[in-house]
């Protein structure tokens, strides 16, 4: 059990910087991209049917 916890701790110490680096790289590259609005403008219409269509905002 003790060896398992030591291995788990070592694994977390190795993987946490890798995960943080991947997330940081994804955020940095996404900020550099030009965000385009959806083709329908600021608020695209949703195609709802049945129960949800009655209560959807126009």
Overview of the molecule:
- It is built from two helices and no strands.
- It starts with a helix and ends with a helix.
- The chain has a domain at 1-32.
- With 58 residues, the protein is mainly α.
What are the segments in which pLDDT stays under 50 over at least 5 consecutive residues? none
Largest sheet: number of strands, sense, barrel closure: none
Provide the succession of SSEs: HH
Mean pLDDT: 77
Q: How far apart are the first and last residues' alpha carbons, in Å? A: 60 Å
**Number of DSSP-assigned strands:** 0
- Percent in helix: 55-70%
Number of helices: 2
What overall form do the CA principal axes indicate? elongated
Which radius of gyration do the C-alpha atoms yield? 23 Å
Task: Please outline what is shown here.
With 58 residues, the chain is an all-alpha fold. It has 2 helices and no strands. The chain has helices at residues 2-32, 51-55.
Strand-helix topology:
Elements: H1 2-32, H2 51-55
Can you give keywords for this protein?
mainly alpha; 2 helices; 58 residues; 62% helix
């Amino acid at each position: 059990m003790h060896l398992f916890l030591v291995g788990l701790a070592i694994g977390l110490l190795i993987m946490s910087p890798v995960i943080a680096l991947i997330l940081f790289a994804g955020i940095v590259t996404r900020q550099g991209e030009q965000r385009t609005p959806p083709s329908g403008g600021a608020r695209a219409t949703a195609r709802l049917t049945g129960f949800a269509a009655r209560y959807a905002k126009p």
